[in-house]
């Protein structure tokens, strides 16, 4: 890079300009490729390290303003990028003019992007200049930050790449360059284009504005272009100061005449707050503007220095209306103003005082919205992508970014629940229906409507339902707490404080019993559902009442004495305790046909006729009912009379008082019985042997057969009666 000292030396040795009727032309060819969005050192641009484009946009218009009395300026810029990496020729942004506003407007409106078609751009500028038929000299000033490319006629398999892509390392006809021939280094065509300009009398100055173009092979390429253009070698700049000095050096060395640009004595204010005045420059013989700084605390207004009217706070940043980043800067006088800090490049937008990518989506992508479909579109001018709204045709709906036939999911107006959210079936403009979320319920959603839980309890909590039921708090199908169905406690238990408890006592409901002191009691249910004995009455014990099975029984009438017996018709009766506890006559088995009830007992008949017979221990006694065998134990009828045999008669006492003497066959001793038997009048009498005057101590031999015959006769009669 030529040093500033060298530049000043050139200025000093340059012949003074002289007044001229028409100014020469300085044609600016500006590289506007995408790499101009980066800082000169190749890093991302920032407020403290602005992009190469932002620097050029300030320096170049200033150059035109400072030298507008020595040149007419024009500007051409590399083509704008497109999706196909534009490699067309440069566009004329500012035609040749004495007004520098065209240059300022050109740099403010252009947006970096695209390739570096240096050769094609130089050819386009030569054609444009030739078409003007200029009568004055013309010069081309090329400002670029990279090596020339974009020559589609080159062979990508054999060319030298401008980037790190390994072009030419694969078999022929197989390009390994990122963009094929567009990535090939276009040195030869660029040198030829510069040589053609120089041959037409137009010198070409080349400025490499990037840290990679300071030395080495990269600078050699730019030197070759400059040499072919008649200016020996290229210039290099790596920051704003260096670029300003290089451009001023080129302009000073090239100017040959001048024109008055202002009226001597006039004054103007510059955008940076400084003041300039018009005066005659004796060195060049023309009027020129001289810039001076206002004193501290003042700024230029209406051509004079006045007190500062600060419009912002130093250090603040914002997005300007032109889409660039502005920063509040304090000038040398301490006055603040908004100044461009960064120019948002192609595909960028200013947001939050920073240049950010404006790629909102991927070009060509689509997505569904509530009202239809959106498609991502790419703006060729700005490089930004954005969603463009669209609609699906009637009867179709957007699904996964595409319009498809409606799949009617529901009936318009219907409602349903999705957990706690009410969803409504809505028909869109195309007639397609879909469920859309609506109100979110606080408690629960049921049947497409919000509901409120009506029970306030804790899951697992219990309570009593009535006296014998236990309810448990559950979570129902709507996730609400609710009391579940009551579970009945087991028999002989009750519910207390939500739990089943065993009853203290137990009895059969309705049962009765007698309590102490003649009380009557009944088994009843209490308020807890338990059975307990409850007093129902008090028997008049003093009055003779008694309690029996829980009932008061009145005093018993004296009907008979316990153990007494009597006859009723021909049936014995005994005095016994009845169910009531009172003694009453109880029937026994009726006497047989050969019996009669006598004194409460069934007694056998003695027989009829002349001979009577009674078993041992009994004797025949005459009674009103007849003659019967009665016991000889002193009971009714007295004892039985003595009988013939080995055993003597027993002594009996009673109403009969009967006694008898036994006549033993074996001649044993007999006891004589005494007594008498009372019979009914006219009744038969039984007379013992002693009564008959029989001496039973001796046996009459002649009487024995007679006795035997008599006994046999008696036995036969008894058998016949039976």
UniProtKB/TrEMBL annotation:
Domain VWFA: start-end pairs: 25-250
InterPro entries xrefs: VWF_A, vWFA_dom_sf
Region described as Disordered: spans on this chain: 640-684
Signal sequence coordinates: 1-17
SMART domains (alphabetical): VWA
PROSITE patterns, alphabetized: VWFA
Name of one Pfam family that matches: VWA
Biased composition regions of type Gly residues, renumbered to the chain: 640-667
Keyword annotations from UniProtKB, A to Z: Signal
Domain of life: Bacteria
Name the UniProt record assigns to this protein: VWFA domain-containing protein
Organism name: Archangium gephyra
Source organism phylogeny: Bacteria, Pseudomonadati, Myxococcota, Myxococcia, Myxococcales
């Amino acid at each position: 890079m030529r040093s500033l000292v060298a530049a000043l030396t050139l200025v000093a040795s340059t012949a003074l300009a002289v007044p001229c009727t028409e100014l020469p032309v300085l044609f600016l060819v500006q590289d506007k490729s995408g790499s101009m969005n980066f800082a000169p050192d190749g890093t991302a641009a920032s407020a403290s390290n602005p992009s190469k484009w932002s620097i050029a946009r300030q320096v170049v218009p200033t150059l035109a303003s400072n030298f507008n009395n020595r040149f007419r300026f024009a500007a051409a810029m590399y083509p704008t990028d497109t999706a196909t990496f534009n490699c067309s020729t440069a566009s004329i942004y500012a035609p040749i003019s004495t007004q520098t506003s065209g240059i300022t407007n050109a740099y403010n409106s252009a947006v970096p992007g695209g390739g570096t078609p240096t050769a094609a751009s130089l050819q386009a500028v030569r054609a444009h200049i030739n078409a003007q038929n200029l009568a004055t000299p013309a010069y081309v000033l090329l400002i670029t930050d990279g090596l020339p490319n974009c020559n589609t006629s080159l062979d990508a398999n054999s060319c030298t790449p401008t980037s790190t892509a390994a072009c030419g390392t694969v078999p022929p006809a197989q390009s390994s360059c990122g963009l094929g021939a567009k990535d090939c280094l276009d040195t030869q065509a660029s040198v030829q284009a510069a040589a053609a300009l120089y041959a037409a009398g137009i010198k070409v100055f080349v400025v490499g504005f990037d840290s990679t173009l300071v030395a080495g092979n990269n600078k050699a390429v730019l030197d070759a272009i400059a040499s072919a253009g008649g200016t020996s070698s290229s210039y290099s700049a790596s920051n704003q100061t260096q670029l300003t000095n290089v451009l001023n050096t080129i302009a000073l060395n090239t100017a040959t005449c001048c024109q008055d640009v202002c009226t001597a004595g006039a004054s103007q204010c510059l955008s940076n707050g400084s003041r300039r005045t018009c005066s005659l420059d004796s060195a060049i013989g023309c009027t020129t503007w001289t810039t001076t700084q206002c004193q501290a605390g003042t700024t230029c207004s209406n051509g004079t220095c006045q007190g500062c009217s600060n419009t912002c706070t130093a250090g603040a940043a914002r997005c300007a209306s032109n889409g660039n980043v502005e920063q509040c800067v304090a000038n040398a006088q301490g006055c603040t103003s908004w100044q461009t800090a960064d120019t948002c490049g192609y595909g960028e937008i200013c947001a939050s005082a920073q240049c950010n990518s404006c790629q909102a989506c991927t070009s060509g992508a689509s997505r569904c919205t509530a009202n239809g479909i959106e498609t991502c579109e790419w703006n060729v001018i700005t490089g930004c992508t954005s969603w463009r709204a669209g609609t699906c045709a009637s009867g179709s709906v957007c699904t996964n970014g595409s319009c498809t036939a409606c799949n009617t999911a529901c009936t318009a107006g219907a409602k349903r629940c999705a957990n706690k959210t009410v969803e409504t079936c809505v028909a869109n403009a195309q007639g397609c229906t879909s469920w859309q979320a609506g109100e979110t319920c606080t408690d629960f959603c049921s049947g497409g409507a919000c509901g409120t839980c009506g029970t306030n309890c804790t899951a697992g909590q219990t309570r009593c339902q009535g006296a014998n039921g236990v309810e448990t708090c559950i979570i129902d199908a709507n996730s609400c707490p609710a009391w579940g169905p009551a579970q009945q406690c087991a028999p002989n238990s009750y519910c207390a404080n939500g739990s089943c408890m065993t009853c203290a006592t137990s009895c059969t409901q309705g049962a009765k019993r007698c309590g102490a002191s003649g009380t009557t009691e009944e088994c009843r249910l209490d308020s807890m559902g338990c059975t307990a004995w409850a007093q129902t009455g008090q028997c008049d014990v003093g009055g003779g009442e008694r309690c029996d099975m829980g009932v008061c029984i009145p005093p018993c009438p004296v009907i008979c004495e316990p153990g007494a017996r009597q006859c009723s018709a021909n049936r014995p009766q005994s005095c016994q305790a009845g169910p009531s506890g009172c003694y009453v006559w109880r029937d026994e088995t009726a006497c047989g046909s050969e019996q009669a009830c006598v004194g409460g007992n069934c007694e056998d008949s003695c027989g009829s006729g002349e001979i009577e017979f009674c078993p041992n221990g009994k004797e025949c006694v005459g009674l009103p009912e007849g003659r019967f065998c009665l016991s000889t134990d002193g009971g009714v009828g007295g004892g039985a009379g003595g009988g013939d045999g080995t055993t003597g008669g027993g002594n009996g006492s009673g109403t009969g008082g009967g006694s008898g003497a036994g006549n033993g066959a074996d001649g044993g001793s007999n006891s004589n019985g005494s007594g008498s038997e009372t019979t009914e009048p006219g009744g038969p009498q039984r007379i013992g042997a002693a009564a008959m005057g029989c001496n039973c101590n001796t046996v009459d031999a002649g009487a024995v057969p007679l006795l035997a015959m008599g006994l046999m006769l008696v036995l036969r009669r008894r058998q016949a009666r039976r």
